[in-house]
Amino acid sequence: MNFVIPDFMPAVPEIVLLALASFILIADTVWSKRYVNATYYATQFTLLLVGVLILASFTTDTVVTFDQSFVRDAFADVLKIFIVIVSLGVFLFSREYLKQNDFYKGEFFTLGLFAILGMFVMVSSYNFITLFVGLEIMSLAMYAMIAMQRDSSKATEAAIKYFVLGALATGLLLYGLSMIYGATGSLTIPEVKAIVEAGKADSVVLAFGVVFIVIGLGFKLGAVPFHMWVPDVYHGSPTAVTLFIGAAPKIAAFAIVYRLLVDGLPGLVIDWQPLLIIMAVLSMVVGTVIAIAQTNFKRLLAYSGIAHIGFLLLGFIAATPEGYSAAMFYVLVYALTSVAAFGMIIALARTGFEFDEIKDFKGLNQRNPWLAAMMLIIMFSMAGIPPFIGFYAKLVVLQEVITAGFVWLAIVGVVTAVAGAFYYLRVVKVMYFDSAEVEGELKATTKEMAVAVSVFSLALLVLGLMPAWLMSVAYNSLLV
Amino acid sequence: MSLGYPILSTLIWLPIIAGLIVLFAGRNNPGFAKWFSLGAAVLTFILSLPLYVAFDTTTSAMQFVERVSWIPQYNIEYFLGVDGLSMPLVLLTTFTQVLVIASAWTVIKDRVEQYMGAFMIMQGLMIGVFTALDSILFYVFWEALLIPMFIVIGKWGGPKRVYATLKFFLYTFLGSVFMLVAFLYLFFQSGSFSILDFHAMPIGMTAQILIFLAFLIAFAVKIPMFPVHTWLPDAHVEAPTAGSVVLAAIMLKMGGYGFVRFSLPITPDASMTLDWLIIGLSLIAIVYIAFVALIQTDMKKLVAYSSIAHMGFVTLGIFLVYSIVSKTGDVQGAALGMEGAMVQMISHGFISGAMFLAIGVLYDRMHTREIGAYGGVVNTMPWFGFFAVLFAMANAGLPGTSGFVGEFMVILSAFKANVWFGVLAATTLIVGAAYTLWMIKRVIFGSVANEEVAKLQDLNRREFAIMATLAFVIILLGVWPNPLLEVMHSSVDNLLIQATTSKL
Hints:
The complex is a heterodimer of chains A (480) and B (504).
Chain A: H1 12-31, H2 38-56, E1 63-65, E2 70-72, H3 74-100, H4 106-123, H5 128-147, H6 153-184, H7 189-198, H8 203-221, H9 229-236, H10 239-246, H11 248-264, H12 269-292, H13 297-318, H14 321-348, H15 364-367, H16 369-383, H17 389-403, H18 407-432, H19 447-465, H20 468-479
Antiparallel strand pairs in A: 1-2
Helix pairs in contact in A: 1-2, 1-4, 2-3, 2-4, 3-4, 3-10, 3-11, 3-14, 3-20, 4-5, 4-11, 5-6, 6-8, 6-9, 7-11, 8-11, 8-12, 9-10, 9-13, 10-14, 11-14, 12-13, 12-18, 13-14, 13-17, 13-18, 14-16, 14-17, 14-19, 14-20, 16-18, 16-19, 17-18, 17-19
Chain B: H1 7-25, H2 30-53, E1 63-71, E2 76-82, H3 87-103, H4 112-131, H5 135-144, H6 146-156, H7 161-190, H8 195-200, H9 205-222, H10 231-238, H11 241-266, H12 268-273, H13 275-294, H14 299-319, H15 321-328, H16 331-366, H17 377-380, H18 382-395, H19 402-417, H20 419-443, H21 451-454, H22 461-479, H23 482-500
Antiparallel strand pairs in B: 1-2
C-alpha cells in the first residue's frame, strides 16, 4: 500500500480558516459572557490573517493537490481575496445592526466564517465532490444565518423558502453532475474536460447533464426563471444577513459556474450557451420590469440583483477568455456595490426602524447631504451611468457579447439598463426632490458606519475614474 | 498646435474640482459658494482664451492634443483635442458659464452650494464632451452630464419638475445607449475606440445604416429633432433659469456636434442615403414647430419651441451637403451650408441664452412666465425693454445680429440644393418673426397691464452687465462673423471631404 502525503501548502488559507473558525466557535461559548466584542474582533482578525496568507503566497501557477480535487491558481486567489475584502466590510456593517436589534451573538460570525470557508472550497474545487461539499458548507451556514432571528416570522419564512429551494437546486445540480460522471466515468474537472473534448462520452447523456447543472447553477445565481426565492429571502432576512448573502456568495456562485462550464465542460458550449442566453434575457427583462414596481428597498435590490445576474451571464455567453474576465469583473463590481448599498441601509437604520422602504429616504439630502451624495453614487453606479464603476462593468460585458456576435443581446441589455435606470433614479428623486417627512439631521448610527459606507461608495467613484486596475486584476487572473 | 501645458485638461478639471470644493466647503456659506464659483468660472474663461489665440487656422488636424492610455485592456485612451468645429463650442461653454453663475446670484436661496457645484461640474463635463477624441471618454462625459442636470432640474425647477427631469434623463439615456452599442461595434471592427480611427475605417453599407440610425437616435434626442423633441419644452419650462440657459445654449449643441463629429465622417454613405430623412425632419422642425411656438402662452415654452426650430437649421445645414454635391458637383458650394450650421449653433447659444436670461429677469420679479400676466413692461423697465427687443430681433434673424448670419447661410445653400427646401426654410423668417415679436408686443409694449407690472424695478447692475455682454457678442458676431468663420474653415473643408468620400 502506497500512501502519499498530499501537499497541504496550497490549502493553508482554508486550513487556517477552518481551524480558527472552529476555535472561535468553541471559545465564543466561554468568552461571550465577559467580552462581548471578542468574537467580532477574532472574526475580523481571522479574515485579515487569511487574506494576508493568500496575498503572501499569491501565485500565478496552477497547483493541484489532494488527488486532483483542489486547485490553487490566480483565479482562485483573486476571488478569495475579494471574498475576504467583501466579508470584512459585511461584518463591519453587520455588527452595528446586530447590536441594535439585540442579536449580537457569536453564532452570526462563526456561521459567517464557515460560509466563507465553503466559498473558498467552491472557488478552489477541481473535482465535482469538492465543489459539492463546498456548496453545502456555504448553503447550510447561510440557512442557519437567515433563521437566526427566531422570533421573526418573516425571517423564518425566508429561511424555509431558501432551504427548500436551495435543497432542490442542490439536488438538481447533483443529478446533473452524476449524469456527467455516468457519461465520462470521471469526477475530476480536467479529466471530464479531456474526455468530453475527445468525444468519448455519450452526447445525449452529457446534454441532459448540462441542462440539470445549468438549472442548479441558475438557482444558486438567482437567474430567472429560478429566481423566486431571491426577493423573499432578501426582504425577509435581517438586513445584516441580506448584506451577507447578497455579496460574497455571488462571487462564489460565479466561481462554480466558471469551474463547471468553462473549466470542465467547454466542449459542451453549444449545449449550455443557449440555456444561458435564455436565462440572461429573462433575468434582465424580468428583474428590471418587476423592480420598477417595488416600494421596499431591499426587494428593489433583490430584483435589480436579478437583472445584474443577467448582465453577468452575458460574459459567459460570449464564451471567450475575455468574456469570462468581463463576467468576473462584473461580479467583483457587483459585490462591492451591493455591500455599499446594504451598508447604507444599515448605517441609517435604528432600533425598530429598518430604513428599508424607499420612502424612508425622503429628503435625505436635507437631513444628511453627505450620505445622500454617497447614495447617489451607489445608485448611479448600479444604473451603469459613468463615471462610476458600474458603467465599466456593463461596458465590458456588452463589448464581449458584441465581439462574440450577439449584437441583439447587447441591445436587449442596454434597453433594460435604461428601464432599470428609472428605479434607481426614483431613489435619487426621493432623496433630493421630496421633502423629508421627519425633520432634523439624520446621522449614521456611528461614525465608524459613516466612514465605512463612504469608503465603499467613494471606491465606486475612484475605481470608475481609474477602472484599469480592477480590470487588469480580473483579466490577468484568467488570461495568463 | 500645442501650448506648454495641457490646456484642455485644465479646462475640464478646473471647474470640476472647483465644483467639488464648492459642494463640500460651501455648505452653510452661500457667499463663499457664489464668489468661489464665479471666480473659477471667470478663471476658466480666461484660461480658455489661449485656445483661440494660439489656434492654427490653416490645418484641420486636431490641436492641443493630449493622449495617454487609460484602460489598456480595451485600448481606451484619455485622448483630447480640438479642431475648428469644437473649439468655438468650448469657448461658448466657458463664456456662457460666467453668465450662468452670475444669473443665479440672488435667485437661488436653497442649497446654493449644491446649485453652484452642480453647474461647475457640468461645465467641466461639457468641455469634456466637446474635446474628447476617444469615443468611450466622450460617452463618459456625455452621460455623466445627465447626473448634475437631473439634480438641477429636479431640485430647483418649477412645479412639474420631477416629471420633467425624469423624462429628460430617460429620453437622453435611451438615446445614448444605442450610440454606445454602435461604439462597441466599431471597436469590435477596428480594435480602437479612437474617433479618428473610426473616421478612417471602411464600413459596409448595412452596418453603416444601423450605426447611422443608432447615432441618429442619440443626437436627435439631444438636439432635439421632431418627433423626439417633447422632453425639451418640459425640461426647459421646469428648469431654473440657469438650467434652461445651459440646456439651450450648450447641451443642445452636443447633438449638432455629434452629427459633424460622428455621423458624417464615420458613416458618410449612410448619411448620403438617408439625408432625406434628416432634411425632412429638419424642415418639419423649422415649419411645424415654429407654428407650435406661435400659440404658446408661456414665454419659456415659446422660446423652447423656437430653439427646436432654430436647431432645425443646424441639422438642415449639415445634411444639405449631399443634395448640393449631387446637384452641382461642387463640394465647396456645400461648405456654405455646413458653416452656416456651425455659426447657427454658436449664435443660437448666445441668443437662446439671452432669451432665457431675459425671461428669468422677469420671472424673478413676478414669478410667472405667462405672457398674459405682463404688458407694458417697457414703461417700468426701459433698459430691460431695450435688451429684450434686441434679443428678440436676433431670435427672429434680423440682419446685423448673429441670428441672421447662420440662418441666411443655411437658407442660401438650401436654395442651391432644392428650391422647395429653400422656400420652406425661409418661412422661418416670417413665422419666427411673428412668434417672437408678437410675444414682445404683448409683454413689453402697450400700456401697463396691472399693478404688479407698475411696481417692477428695472435691471440692477449685475443684470445689466449680463445683458450688455450678451448684446455685445450677438451684435459683434452679426456684423463681423469672420473671426468665427476663419477658425472653422479648414475643419469644415476637411469634414466635407470626409462626408463625401465613400467608405464602402
